[in-house]
């Protein structure tokens, strides 16, 4: 019987350390052991109180701002004040959800510097998970939040890399030349420099129209790549959307389509050959 009291004491001590507790300001510290990262305690306190204030029937903006002034660095507050946002950058959303108090998850990316804060929830549309990458600044008193940005999952990053590689494969110069029924020359010279920088010349006999475009759509399927290029004409300071060209790459062959091409070849609602230009 002499061993029961020490074992019971250790069990109760362990439970106390692992349990959820509140401080004098009723700040939730989540179930964190004394060995765990102190930055997680800091972030848990901040997000718990920020969310609890936000889910009130009438959220107190002054209280939310007070929390930001307490937990965010002056540099970060200054950067936020210069931005016009239609969402709350702290939660990366417009509305607060009570579920977050139970589902919130915080884990280190680089201990003491960068943390992933996730706010999972579900609604009639299914399951969702808002995740943010939070940068911390070490201070004498502890920490301050120096930046919050959207955390991009590995799948999203991989997809962006794949998309970038596809766009890179499209870089180059292309030309489409055709003659209408009246034997007027209609030529498109397309120079794809990057995702955001596409230059297009439309030469109609001796007249040249300049367009500046960008890739607004990119699809790949079974080795076939298609992109969409809006034709945006510039006349002085005026800019107007005119039409859209569609380019397709299949193996070593290139094709062009879109209303401008149909107008050149009336009734030919198909892909026309596109040549690579030097």
Describe this structure in words.
The protein has 278 residues and is an alpha+beta fold. It has two domains: 20-151, Nuclear Transport Factor 2, Chain: A, CATH 3.10.450.50; 161-277. Helix content is 28%, strand content 39%. It contains seven helices and 13 strands. The strands form two sheets. Strands 8-7-6-5-13-12-11-10-9 form a nine-stranded antiparallel beta sheet. Strands 1-2-3-4 form a four-stranded antiparallel beta sheet. β11 and β12 (253-257) form a beta hairpin. α2 runs antiparallel to α3 (61-71). The longest helix has 17 residues, at 38-54. Mean pLDDT is 78; it is low at 1-35.
Topology readout:
Blueprint: H1 4-18, H2 38-54, H3 61-71, H4 74-81, H5 100-103, E1 105-110, E2 114-123, E3 126-138, E4 143-150, H6 154-170, E5 172-179, E6 185-192, E7 198-204, E8 207-213, E9 217-221, E10 224-235, E11 238-250, E12 253-257, H7 259-264, E13 272-277
Antiparallel strand pairs: 1-2, 2-3, 3-4, 5-6, 5-13, 6-7, 7-8, 9-10, 10-11, 11-12, 12-13
Helix pairs in contact: 2-3
Question: In short, what is this structure?
Answer:
With 278 residues, the chain is α+β, with helices and mostly antiparallel strands. The chain has seven helices and 13 strands.
């Amino acid at each position: 019987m002499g061993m029961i009291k020490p074992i019971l004491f250790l069990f109760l001590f362990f439970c106390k350390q692992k349990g959820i507790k509140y401080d004098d300001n009723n700040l939730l510290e989540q179930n964190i052991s004394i060995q765990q990262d102190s930055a997680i305690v800091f972030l848990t306190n901040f997000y718990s109180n920020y969310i609890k204030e936000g889910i009130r029937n009438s959220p107190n903006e002054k209280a939310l701002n007070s929390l930001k002034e307490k937990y965010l660095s002056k540099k970060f507050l200054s950067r936020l004040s210069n931005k016009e946002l239609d969402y709350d950058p702290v939660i990366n959303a417009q509305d607060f959800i009570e579920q977050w108090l139970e589902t919130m998850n915080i884990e280190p990316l680089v201990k003491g510097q960068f943390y992933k804060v996730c706010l999972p929830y579900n609604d009639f549309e299914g399951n969702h998970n808002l995740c943010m990458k939070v940068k911390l600044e070490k201070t004498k008193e502890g920490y301050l939040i120096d930046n919050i940005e959207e955390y991009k999952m590995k799948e999203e990053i991989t997809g962006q890399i794949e998309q970038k590689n596809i766009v890179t494969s499209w870089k180059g110069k292309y030309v489409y030349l055709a003659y209408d029924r009246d034997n007027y020359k209609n030529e498109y010279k397309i120079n794809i420099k990057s995702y955001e920088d596409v230059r297009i010349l439309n030469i109609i006999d001796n007249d040249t129209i300049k367009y500046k475009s960008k890739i607004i759509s990119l699809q790949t399927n079974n080795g076939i790549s298609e992109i969409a290029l809006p034709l945006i004409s510039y006349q002085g300071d005026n800019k107007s959307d005119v039409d859209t060209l569609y380019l397709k790459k299949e193996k070593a062959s290139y094709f062009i389509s879109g209303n401008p091409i149909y107008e050149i070849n009336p009734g030919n609602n198909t892909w026309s050959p596109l040549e690579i230009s030097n």
